[in-house]
Amino acid sequence: MLITGGAGFIGSNFIFYIHRKHPDYNLLCLDKLTYAGNLATLDSMINNKKFKFIRADIANRTAVYEIFKTEKPDVIVNFAAESHVDRSIENPAVFLETNVMGTQVLLDACRKYGIQRYHQVSTDEVYGDLPLDRPDLFFTEKTPLHTSSPYSASKASADLLCNAYQRTYGLPITISRCSNNYGPYQFPEKLIPLMIANALADQPLPVYGEGLNVRDWLYVEDHCAAIDLILERGKEGEVYNIGGHNEMRNIDIVKLICKALGKPESLITYVADRKGHDMRYAIDPAFIHQELGWLPVTKFEDGIQRTIQWYLDNRNWWETIINGEYQKYYERMYGNR
Ligand code: NAD
Ligand code: DAU
Question: What's the CA-to-centroid distance between 190 and ligand 2, angstroms?
């Protein structure tokens, strides 16, 4: 199994999950190690005979073809992406290079060398957003694509390419669209780890706009389990929405983190809103539940405590990141906000 983007947040959790669940699988991780990729995350796997790491860019056709030729993967799970909405607003180009062109290179390699399954890890952001005053509305697999940010536009483009390669060339492709993940090893630019890190340092907690935007949070392992199930029993050409009906307002998440860490809410600082900020995401997971029997197992109350504890126990992992290049990004993003 070739796992791209496996040195990032969800990809690394997926590698751990799959290795536990299927210890006989040979796993190959391909990752460019961008600012978001951290090889230290995969420390526990590096010397494992069932695991191999190759540093490469999914948009580099020569490198990708060479890997397919020599390693002959049966199954590809594509996590590799530029994933942060704010960065896509700052600089969209790299999002098109990796998320669109990179996906195309992988799909071409699949055609050229033959595979059993290509799985595209997509996002609920391809559906745009829902209004706050219509709690009866949810994203289903039939909701039209309607993107807001360069990030979501690039992910939707990749999904459309996957559909096209499946229909035109008969490639065995599945797509999953998941809601917001949280858990260990999430890069501290994303809401939950950023707030934990700032709160622990008694730094301001920058809430965009009024903090009323709603996200549908899912513990990362539940996402990994859903992908594993789709690989085993999912139907080629199908899209599966993944989410656990766990909608929370940003401000409530931030207050919860303050409480859990014993920090004052006075750290909360309202800053300028994100441009084009999506109001509400909410997945209807009925299809994957009916077709594959998937249901999330981690309750938010447990998952968030476990996540906060992980960041407390693994300060070295995220402090090293914060001390490096990320600091310049932080200054650019929040300096004059
Ligand atoms: P992440 O930013 O933590 O990790 C991305 C990984 O991809 C990093 O290891 C990075 O080095 C690697 N990468 C980036 N560009 C690459 C390239 N050109 N070639 C090879 N590797 C490259 O992202 P994440 O949060 O783990 O998200 C993983 C996937 O899941 C993405 O496709 C994202 O769109 C999707 N997704 C994320 C969420 C979420 O809440 N984080 C929810 C739904 C879907
Ligand atoms: O829904 C799935 C998506 O979830 C994934 O496709 C993306 O890769 C992932 O990054 C995530 O996107 P969001 O934009 O929802 O996540 P983020 O953590 O950046 O922000 C969550 C919410 O918190 C959003 O409404 C913006 C807000 N926010 C974020 C940051 C970083 C703040 O208020 N302050 C912040 O400093």
Answer: 6
CA separation for the pair 100, 185 (Å, rounded): 25
331 contacts: CB under 8 Å, gap ≥ 6: none
Residue 108 known to be catalytic: no
221 flagged as catalytic: no
- Atom 23 (ligand 2): residue with closest C-alpha? 191
pLDDT interval class at 331 (50, 70, 90): confident
Which of 124-133, 266-275, 327-336 is least confident?
327-336
Domain that holds residue 52: 2-186+217-246+280-298
In a domain, 203, yes or no: no
Distance 158 CA to ligand 1 centre (A): 13
Please tell me the distance from the alpha carbon of residue 121 to that of residue 81, in angstroms, as a whole number. 9
Instruction: Flag whether 267 is in a domain.
Output: no
328 part of a folded domain: no
Kindly report, residue by residue over 131-154, the tens digit of the pLDDT.
999 999 999 999 999 999 999 999
Six token digits for residue 240:
């599966």
| Of 31, 13, 23, residue with least CA distance to 67 | 31
Q: What is the CATH number of the domain that holds 64?
A: 3.40.50.720
d(Cα 78, Cα 63) in Å, to the nearest integer? Answer: 16
Which pTM does this prediction carry? 0.97
- Answer yes or no: is 95 within a domain: yes
Query: For residue 196, what are its two tokens?
Result: 């934990």
| Number of domains into which the chain is organized | 1
pLDDT at 323: 83
Q: Which residues line ligand 1 (CB under 6 A)?
A: 4-5, 7-11, 31-34, 36-37, 57-59, 79-83, 98, 102, 121, 123, 155, 178, 180-181, 187
